[in-house]
Amino acid sequence: MIPPNVERAGGTTLGEVSRAEVLKRAPEWWRSLANRALRSAAADKAKSIVTPPAARRYCGWIAGCVAPGIALPCFNHADKLRVREQFTPACWDRVLKQFRKGMSPVTLRWGHDGTTLATTEDMSLLLGVHNVVGLTFDARLTDDAAGRMAVDAAPKDGLAVSIAYRKASTWMVEREGVAIRVVDDCVVDHIAVLPPAMTPAYPAARAFARRGVEAACPEELERDARIHAWVTLKRQQGATSG
Fold first, then answer.
1. What integer pLDDT is reported at residue 120 of this predicted model?
2. What is the pTM of this model?
């Protein structure tokens, strides 16, 4: 309780009495301090306002299958062998879990040593697993020189796709006298969309692209990639059985 001999400073607030009225009755030194404080507060507020980055512009989409079926003979630095290769469904499931947990970023590149087109770090590159063709991807291409080049370079029958991986768990099997490297676990480093002149290790791996500003990857790109993989795998199976 406030003693009766103590005067209250006032029962009103600046909300009840205009700032102009208060300053008009205040001494000069008080008005100077008040104005200085207001200028300082305004400056601090201006500093705290962060200009948001410009919205990223996109030019199109690309989608494909990464490594369906069995590869042509390819060299592996770990086992020093040039043999055919195949990924297990369990391997792709583990890769997908790594992607969902953000454990190891994956990039999409133009060629193995070329420009990065998209990455899982900013979700411009998304991965998935199909029960027949294995690991799939779709990527939204930035409207820059690399993105425009990639989408415009894709012919109607698509671009070849390759994969680079590390920390692999593999074993060797022999089928009808042919040695095959089986990859049961790995960390995918990057996926490469290959220029038209290059031959992929996995003939069934193909990517299709088109210009557009859709918020989601057009279904026909993913469908065309799956159809190419399926037809190629059936052709390979027929050649093997024949």
1. 95
2. 0.75
With the CA atoms of 227, 233, 234 and 238 taken in that order, what torsion angle do they form, in degrees rounded to the nearest 10? Answer: 160
Give every CB contact of residue 170 below 8 A, 6+ residues apart in sequence. Answer: 76, 78, 79, 181, 182, 183, 184
**Domain count across the chain:** 2
Q: Which amino acid, 114?
A: G
Residues 137 and 180 in one domain: yes
User: Same domain, yes or no, for 43 and 113?
Assistant: no
CA distances from 171 to 83, 95, 162, 180 (A): 12, 18, 21, 8
The answer on 114 and 38 residing in a single domain is no
pLDDT beyond 90 at 85: yes
Q: Bigger pLDDT: 8 or 106?
A: 106
Structural domain that includes position 98: 58-241
Within a domain: 6 = no
Does residue 139 share a domain with residue 89? yes
Would you say 108 and 191 are in contact if contact means Cβ atoms under 8 Å apart?
yes
Determine whether 186 is exposed, middle or buried from the number of CB atoms within 10 Å of its CB (0-12, 13-18, 19+): buried
